[in-house]
Amino acid sequence: MSDRATAGTPEPTGPGDTADATVGATDAARTAETEEAVSCRGLEYSFGDTKAVSGLDLSVRSGEVFGLLGPNGAGKTTAIRCITTLLPVPAGMVRVFGHDAAKERMAVRRLLGYVPQQLSADAALTGRENVTLFARVFDVSRRERAERVAQALEAVDLTSAADRLAKTYSGGMVRRLELAQALVSAPRLLMLDEPTIGLDPIARTSVWEHINAVRNATGMTVLVTTHYMDEAEQYCDRVALMHRGRIHALGTPGELRTELRERRVAAGGKAAGETAPTLEDVFRDVAGRGLEEEGGDFRDVRNTRRTASRVG
Hints:
By secondary structure, this protein is α/β, with parallel strands linked by helices. The protein has helices spanning about 20-25, 25-30, 75-85, 105-110, 125-135, 140-155, 170-185, 200-220, 230-235, 255-265, 280-285, 290-295, 300-310; strands spanning about 35-45, 50-60, 65-70, 95, 100, 110-115, 190-195, 220-225, 240-245, 245-250. It has one domain (about 35-310): Rossmann fold, CATH 3.40.50.300. α5 runs parallel beside α7 (about 170-185) and α10 (about 255-265) packs across α11. The longest helix is centred in the C-terminal third of the chain and has 18 residues, at about 200-220. It starts with 17 loop residues before the first helix and ends with a helix.
């Protein structure tokens, strides 16, 4: 995702970007016509004979915090990578603010900020140098770069630590630094893949407080994957529970809990005195035995533990 222009005012960086510049000129008008930040229609993606995403239909509304939940191996990260254009998809399957991810990759990338599950900060650089590097990669103009970097660091409360090496940061500070890296280009859509993995509860809360502060100030849309049901319950406007490459439940956390309780009552449970189901209960109900059957492969476990150990 190295060829992004300043968010909101995309400019061509070479002759090959002329078409994207033309698209960018109508960006505001096209965005005004849709309330969808992300739209996936029948999204499919396979790795060899393994189908990771199978007919995924997904709609994320502009301005909301949307949680994509599911067990390891459900296809969440693959779906995220398709939306961010890191994995190629056929035309018509994925749109971001009206732009086709297959036909208008540059236009899509200019609208995104992405915090992957794996560690992306460089321990040998200072916080400021890390964010500046991302500003350059994402084509933030030279005249705006220093100000944008300072704003991103301030947004995640790292100004006082900006000139320290990242290797001296705590786990929570590292994740906030990666958030600053994603925010430096002022994205309209922030993609977060397990943003608080390996962090203690205090650090997790701090990361989410900064995400919400930026969202409230800018109206940014947030699409997040997480295994922490308490985070999804507290911070997500809507959630989708994904299993075996498809969405099996969609709604607000409260709606999904109510639906499960009603199904239990209809199946013979007692309405009076019955313990109200949690979002984790909904998660288990949707995934069923898939929680044991589809726990990811050895590489998934290794990568997750490596990330947790490095940021925690």
